[in-house]
């Protein structure tokens, strides 16, 4: 990446599969700052707390905390929120975002899980809580709704402080459909972290010319120029949290769609589908077809 090139390993060092059995209670860092190989410049961790436990830290870098599941009180300095979340797939995200030197405290009223995102940014900015993030029905009406998904952009340059260097969001991929589509890329590094509606669920992640089989609790690092469309196996909803780091003098705004596939974004773009199945498809979409 121009002005920010990192040492690269092979595809397996960018696909982290070591946590497929789940995360223990406590804080598990999946990626770290200043890694010697495949360094995204983003630290990603999973914090699991038992009911009654409290975790607190005076931050040494820009940090975001995203509630995955549970019942918590979260504090940034003297400001706090009480949050609950039971489903990544059906409920809106809630996240906190703070600068270095702010004290972050999380109290668990029930067994809870929070994911943490961090970059080496020492700039000061006002702490913020993000709630009631809408589901954007991205891909609706395109190519037979084959890439219809929920996109939840929690914060980016439009609603976060100008001094912040992180962008955070979620995607819910419908069973058997695509997301992060059409194929696109950007110079800013990114991380995807996956969950599925059933523990045996899986999907496919393209990473440039490579295709990865992603499963529960996997994490993938995405670097400059690599297209990264995704698809979920039929029967399984696929969730991923995504975090991007702005580059110096090159913040993330919108991705660049790969030209040969960008036509699906054009209004009224039509794709082939056999006439003899159109009635069956309509029946299924209206709840009259087979389950």
Quickly list its features.
seven-stranded antiparallel β-sheet, 291 residues, mainly beta, Jelly Rolls, globular, disordered C terminus
Question: Can you give a write-up of this model?
Answer:
The structure is a single chain. With 291 residues, this protein is mainly beta. Helix content is 5%, strand content 42%. It is built from 2 helices and 22 strands. The strands form 4 sheets. Strands 2, 3, 4, 5, 6, 7, 8, 9 and 10 form a 9-stranded antiparallel beta sheet that branches. Strands 1-19-16-21-13-12-11 form a 7-stranded antiparallel beta sheet. The chain is globular and about 60 Å long.
Unreliable segments of 5+ consecutive residues: 1-5, 283-291
Mean pLDDT: 93
Give me the oligomer status: single chain
Order of helices and strands: HEEEEEEEEEEEEEEEEEEEEEEH
Instruction: Round the Cα radius of gyration to an integer and report it.
Output: 19 Å
Instruction: Output the CATH class name.
Output: Mainly Beta
- Main β-sheet, in a few words? 9 strands, antiparallel
The helix-and-strand class reads mainly beta
How many domains in all? 1
CATH topology: Jelly Rolls
Please specify the SSE layout and strand pairing.
Blueprint (H helix, E strand, L loop, with lengths): L10 H4 E2 L9 E6 L11 E7 L4 E5 L3 E15 L2 E7 L9 E4 L4 E6 L3 E8 L8 E3 L5 E3 L10 E7 L10 E8 L4 E2 L4 E2 L4 E7 L5 E6 L2 E6 L3 E4 L7 E3 L5 E8 L10 E2 L17 H11 L6
Antiparallel strand pairs: 1-19, 2-3, 3-9, 4-8, 5-6, 5-7, 5-8, 5-9, 7-10, 11-12, 12-13, 13-21, 14-20, 15-22, 16-19, 16-21, 17-18, 17-20
């Amino acid at each position: 990446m121009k002005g920010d090139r990192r040492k690269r390993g092979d595809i397996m060092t960018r696909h982290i599969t070591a946590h497929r059995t789940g995360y223990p209670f406590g804080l598990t860092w999946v990626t770290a700052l200043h890694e010697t190989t495949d360094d995204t410049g983003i630290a990603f961790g999973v914090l699991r707390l038992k009911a009654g436990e409290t975790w607190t830290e005076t931050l040494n870098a820009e940090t975001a905390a995203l509630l995955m599941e549970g019942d918590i009180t979260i504090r940034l300095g003297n400001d706090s929120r009480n949050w609950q979340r039971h489903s990544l797939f059906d409920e809106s995200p809630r996240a906190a975002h703070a600068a270095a030197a702010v004290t972050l405290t999380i109290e668990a009223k029930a067994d809870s899980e929070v994911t943490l995102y961090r970059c080496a940014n020492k700039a000061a900015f006002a702490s913020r809580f993000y709630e009631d993030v809408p589901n954007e029905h991205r891909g609706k009406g395109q190519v037979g709704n084959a890439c219809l998904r929920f996109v939840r952009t929690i914060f980016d340059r439009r609603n976060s402080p100008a001094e912040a260097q992180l962008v955070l969001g979620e995607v819910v991929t419908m069973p058997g459909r695509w997301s992060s589509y059409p194929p696109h890329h950007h110079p800013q590094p990114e991380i995807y972290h996956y969950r599925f509606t059933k523990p045996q669920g899986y999907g496919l992640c393209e990473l440039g010319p490579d295709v990865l089989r992603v499963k529960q609790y996997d994490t993938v690092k995405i670097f400059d120029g690599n297209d990264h469309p995704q698809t979920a196996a039929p029967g399984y909803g696929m969730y991923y949290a995504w975090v991007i780091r702005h580059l110096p003098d090159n913040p993330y705004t919108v991705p660049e769609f790969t030209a040969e596939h960008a036509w699906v974004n054009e209004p009224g773009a039509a794709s082939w589908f056999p006439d003899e199945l159109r009635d069956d498809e309509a029946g299924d979409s209206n709840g009259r077809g087979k389950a």
